[in-house]
C-alpha cells in the first residue's frame, strides 16, 4: 500500500476520492494512476497523509 495525492476526483471501490486529498491505495493502482496523471505517489514522510 502506498499514499497518493489525487489530481482529479474519481470513484474507487465505491468511494469518492476527492481532488487534492491523500489516500492509501494498492501500489499497482497507484502506479497506473500516476502514469495517467490521475494521482501522484507521495513519500510518506513528505506529507502527513490522511487515509480514507
From TrEMBL:
Protein name: Uncharacterized protein
Amino acid at each position: 500500500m502506498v499514499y497518493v495525492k489525487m489530481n482529479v476526483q474519481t470513484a474507487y471501490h465505491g468511494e469518492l476520492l476527492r481532488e487534492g486529498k491523500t489516500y492509501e491505495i494498492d501500489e499497482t493502482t497507484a502506479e497506473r494512476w500516476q502514469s495517467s496523471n490521475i494521482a501522484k505517489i507521495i513519500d510518506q514522510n513528505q506529507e502527513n497523509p490522511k487515509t480514507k
